[in-house]
Amino acid sequence: MPATPSTSAHTRFPTRTVAVVLAGGSGQRIGLATPKQLLKIAGKSILEHTLDIFERSEAVDEVIVMMNPGFVTDAETIVQKAGLSKVSRVLPGGTSRNATTQLALDALAHYSSANTNVLFHDAVRPMLSQRVIDDCVAALETYEAVDVAIPSSDTIIEVNDDDIITDVPTRSRLRRGQTPQAFRMSTIREAYAKAWNDPGFEATDDCTVVLRYAPDVPIHVVAGEEQNMKVTQPVDIFIADKLFQLATSATPRYSEQDYTRELAGKTVVVFGGSYGIGAGVADLAEKHGARVFRYSRSATRTNVANPTEVAQALEQAHSATGRIDYVVNTAGVLRIGRLDQTSNAEIEETLRVNYLAPVNIARAAFPYLAQTGGQLLLYTSSSYTRGRGEYSLYSSTKAATVNLTQALADEWSEDGVGINCINPERTQTPMRTKAFGEEPAGSLLSADKVARTSIDVLLSDLTGHVIDVRREDLSGVSNDAAASQKESAK
């Protein structure tokens, strides 16, 4: 007979939802000197990414962090600098997962058990979606305990102490558990009270505690998501970093009114601002009230590969307005051909314009952007993901630009300066036309669309991201699906 929602005395509608972020890991198990939750991905610590998810959730009223006791101050610093207003306390965790949960419940003792939801979430799952949070809280209107899980794509086997298979469970009934795990606080409190009276009590998660010590309470399962991965092993850090790079759906979209409100009175410097994407960014920013300074070799004879000329351009913009809020570099060189047939002059020009120029611009722009909490925006190409024949210089310099973006996001995070990288699909620009000639109408992304996404990113608080821009709208597609749709080189 299928389980039905509980009809126990705990039926009063909960009025407050508290997220408890479990950040007690040390990292020593995988050989790290720093807890995994403090490692940086896409310019922010994993912990900050996770806390920001709950900060933005309309379903969550308060957040408590249960931190590794030796790093409580580090977590408090992250909370303070990020302005995470929902985080009420950072508390030291216990010696086990269960002990940490109990400490969190003790910290919430001043709330009514019958009128409080509590969500327990692993700090090292920094890609939790708002949809999953909303579904968990909604499910608590009917159920007293909720888990999050996804189907298992692998066959699961059961073995004995000698590693001999003893059973192969039916895969269609198996799920891989994730977090958050959500409860009405009265239910999880009572389950733990019974558990601590059991001399053999041991459980790896909180739903197990309810399952064993409150067996009459049905545990509802909410559908999780593949990208809600747990950063456990060193390779997971790499995977998570790539998923953040491909976070197309994370890019906010602003209205025309937003543009005017955010850009009016700001100073925008665009290198490569005479044609194509750069001109589109400059035009859009100028239309909405920004002071825009365009520099290019064709219009102002500015060589972005020359650090002196870059510094002079930025100084000119700053002298005129007293500030620089955004710096954009769309300048680039696209030469297709075999490396052994490329001249020394062509090699040097490609390296200088495509890589040394972003380096020079970043160095010169940083002091100005640090004053305004501004952002640098660079551009890569879908060819950065894999070197391709006859694209060796172009692909490698674009890959270097991505790595530069990630590294500087880390370096600049303490200074409040953002840096991101736009990765447009094949785009109709004079540079592309020069390399490939005229191409079929409708087969290329418009420079205006890339420009609009560029402004959206500049106005966001993103940093360290590589943002894809495509002809089709992937805003509803998960990160892993977006990654699988990567196109070939421009």
Automatic annotation (TrEMBL):
Q: What class of enzyme is it?
A: transferase
Give the superkingdom in one word.
Bacteria
Question: Where would one find coiled-coil regions in this protein?
Answer: none
Write the Enzyme Commission number(s) for this entry. 2.7.7.60
Q: In which pathway does it act?
A: Isoprenoid biosynthesis; isopentenyl diphosphate biosynthesis via DXP pathway; isopentenyl diphosphate from 1-deoxy-D-xylulose 5-phosphate: step 2/6
Catalytic function, reaction form = 2-C-methyl-D-erythritol 4-phosphate + CTP + H(+) = 4-CDP-2-C-methyl-D-erythritol + diphosphate
Q: Quote the CDD domains the UniProt record gives.
A: CDP-ME_synthetase, SDR_c
GO BP: any one term: isopentenyl diphosphate biosynthetic process, methylerythritol 4-phosphate pathway
The question of whether Ribonucleoprotein is a record keyword is answered with no
Recorded hits in Pfam families, A to Z, give: adh_short (PF00106), IspD (PF01128)
**Where in the chain is the site Transition state stabilizer?**
29, 36
UniProt-recorded Gene Ontology molecular function terms:
2-C-methyl-D-erythritol 4-phosphate cytidylyltransferase activity
Site (Positions MEP for the nucleophilic attack) found at 171, 230
Keywords assigned by UniProt, alphabetized: Isoprene biosynthesis, Nucleotidyltransferase, Transferase
Membership in a protein family: Belongs to the IspD/TarI cytidylyltransferase family. IspD subfamily. Belongs to the short-chain dehydrogenases/reductases (SDR) family.
Q: What does this protein do?
A: Catalyzes the formation of 4-diphosphocytidyl-2-C-methyl-D-erythritol from CTP and 2-C-methyl-D-erythritol 4-phosphate (MEP).
What is the recorded name of this protein? Answer: 2-C-methyl-D-erythritol 4-phosphate cytidylyltransferase
